[in-house]
Amino acid sequence: ELADKSLEDVIRITYGDAAKVGIFNNAAQVWNHTFFWNSLKPGGGAPTGDVAARINSAFGSYDEFKSQFKNAAATQFGSGWAWLVLEAGTLKVTKTPNAENPLVHGQVPLLTLDVWEHAYYLDYQNRRPDFIDNFLNQLVNWDFVAKNLAAA
């Protein structure tokens, strides 16, 4: 019954269904990782334009956004994800465990960071905060965030 559904619909339909947990985990992780790869871009830096204005409006400053995002990513126990999402028209930082993502909570994902150990352990060992800093300072694809925000 899922064969003709979009990946996003498969994720939403199977979330929380114990009989379909394998389908959910695989579908959501394909989606999450694809979204993560698109969240990366060499050079990074701070956002500009509408994204910067929306971040400043929602969080008070870019530094406060970074602080909240770092906290979400660093405190996600075990494996999971940190997210910048749009919820009811407002930007928000959140985190999810394992394969879970904002789609299942009615949020629009704008940016994500993979905090599963496989994402950083070879380069950072147990220094997840250093990985998070590098992501925020050097690797965020703000063009991708702007595209997601404009499409929301």
For this entry, give a set of tags.
globular; minor pseudopilin epsh fold; alpha+beta; 53% helix; 15% strand; three-stranded antiparallel beta sheet; 152 residues; single chain
CATH-assigned fold name: minor pseudopilin epsh fold
From the N-terminal CA to the C-terminal CA, the straight-line distance is: 28 Å
Widest sheet, order of strands: 2-1-3
Give the name of the CATH architecture.
Answer: 3-Layer(bab) Sandwich
Order of helical and strand elements = HHHHEEEHHH
* Low-confidence region ranges: none
Rg, rounded, reads 15 Å
Helix content: 40-55%
Tell me the strand percentage band. Answer: 15-25%
| Helix/sheet category | alpha+beta
The shape is globular
**Number of distinct beta strands:** 3
Number of domains: 1
Overall pLDDT metric:
94
Description of the structure:
This protein is α+β, with helices and mostly antiparallel strands. The chain has a single domain (7-151), classed as minor pseudopilin epsh fold. The protein is 53% helix and 15% strand. The chain has helices at 7-14, 21-38, 49-59, 62-75, 117-124, 128-139, 142-151; strands at residues 80-87, 90-97, 108-114. Strands 2-1-3 form a three-stranded antiparallel sheet, with helices on both faces. Helix 1 packs across helix 2 and helix 4 (62-75) runs antiparallel to helix 6 (128-139). The longest helix is centred in the N-terminal third of the chain and has 18 residues, at 21-38. The two termini are 28 Å apart.
